[in-house]
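All the exercises in this workshop are built on plain-text protein records. A record pairs a protein's sequence with a compact description of its fold. The structure tokens are whole numbers drawn from a learned vocabulary of backbone shapes. Once this layout is familiar, the rest of the handout is easier to follow. An example says more than a description, so a record of this kind follows.
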Amino acid sequence: MPTRSTENTDSHQGRAGLLEPVSLEAPPAPSEPAAGPPRQDGAAGAARPERERHELHDSHADCALLDAFFQATTAGLGVIDRDLRVVRLNQALADINGLPLEAHLGRTIPELLPEMGDAIVAPLRRVLQTGEAMTVEVTGRTRASDQPRAWIVNYAPVRSKDGHVVGVGTVVLDITERKQTENRLQEEGETLELLNKAGKLLAAELDLEKLVQAVTDAATRLSGAQFGAFFYNVTNAEGKSYTLYTISGVSRDHFSRFPMPRNTDVFAPTFNGESVVRLDDVTKDPRYGNNAPYQGMPKGHLPVVSYLAVPVISRSGSVIGGLFFGHPARGVFTERAERLVVGLAAQAAIAMDNAHLFRRAQHLIEALERSNKELDRFAYVASHDLKAPLRAIANLSQWIEDDLVDKATPETRQHMDLLRSRVVRLEALIDGILRYSRAGRVRDKPETVDVRKLLDEVLALLTIPPGASIEIAAGMPALFTERVPLEQVFMNLIGNALKYTDRPDARVEVRGRDLGDLWEFSVKDNGPGIAPQFHQKVWEIFQTLNPRDNIEGTGIGLSIVQKIVLSKGGRAWVESEKGAGATFYFTWPRTESDAASSVR
């Protein structure tokens, strides 16, 4: 039987004292003692063992007290002579060995415990030879146990009065439960470590193939299966569905020559997401072997007796796939293994949902990038191809007017001016569309922007009508952001305020308010105001509330403002009443990361 030994020739030396008295009186030996190994030849050789045996049986006055202790202790105690025969033991040791106490006396260890003789005899001989105590951990079966048990056995030399080793005293402690507890704790520790690693991986991994392989590997180890497989469905970019699989515990070659599993009676509960299937012997299950053409496992398939299958179900309730485990031995998969795999399958379902969403998002991002590039090309081509004929129209109208000279009536000249103004408006509209298509997408590196200085630069670029005033409140911040988009927003809002106030004493106020991670800016005018029903409409592209012949505009400026602000994670809105002026608000991040400012 397997034996693990822990030897100690110093720290256990003191224990010999417990068994050191050589006068422990033994009951009489059986009338027919069992044959033992031959002793030394010659009169002197024969006399010494005989003397040693007498010394082991001599009486002391305190024999009764020692014998009472010997029999009362719960540890197994025994004394073995140099012939490896038992000369004394207590009831506890007799119970451990599974034999009556009297049946031990005078018999050798190999006779009493044939399955464990070698494990016990070796340390006995060593103590007899060296005279040094030792401790050994022994595992095996005795007549009292059907299952293997574990003991700590202390072997100590028993000496005669003149110091000769005349026998060995043994102290036997059953540590089976302790070992089982240690094994369970070790197993639980390994399981927790594996679950922890799997959990971290499931939370972080977005590559579907790597994720599924990791789940299969972890579940195979947790279940104790010889091999595990995960069959799952995926949909490609064209919308076609495929069944893929991963293998753990064995080479993929074991499965590559077989077709994908079908919805047979055994597999159906898993693929339909109905229940977990755990079988001690799948071949004995009534569902096994009912489906053609194999009527069970195909020829050459890995032998499967123990069977465990767990469906993997997404948050939406759809079946993503199934985890399948097999082992050639019977009854391998326990309730605990089932619970662990079911828990892992639930985590895997969430992780796979996330991986699917990530993959879908990647496809959408790629499609959006392609669309943006196409839009850029279209906007450039459209602006170039449309502006050329517009300039030709403007030139032709001027030439026609020059050719007519005196023949043109005032009405004709007015029409020509109107034609050229429409050409200018159309060119502005084309430029506005180009700016709108690029707003919020083309990014620069963020930098520290002093908003007060930036507003001064904006005002320098605008044409401010005589009599109009612009007030910029104190306390404007310094932001770490892109300069050009913020400049565009302020230029559009302040320019609109000046344009649509439509009064000689136009007044515009620009203010800022600290909101922590954001700053809120406002541009207020004293114009005619905007009725509440139009507060959303003003942000729509090409929308203006005034006839274009009264106030020239494209209806794109506020759309650009909103698009830029939204791209920064902020929002834009207006507060106004008819006849009471309007205040346009927007929020802007205090700090913008480099990653958010990459070209998209």
Q: What stands out?
A: The chain has a mean pLDDT of 78.
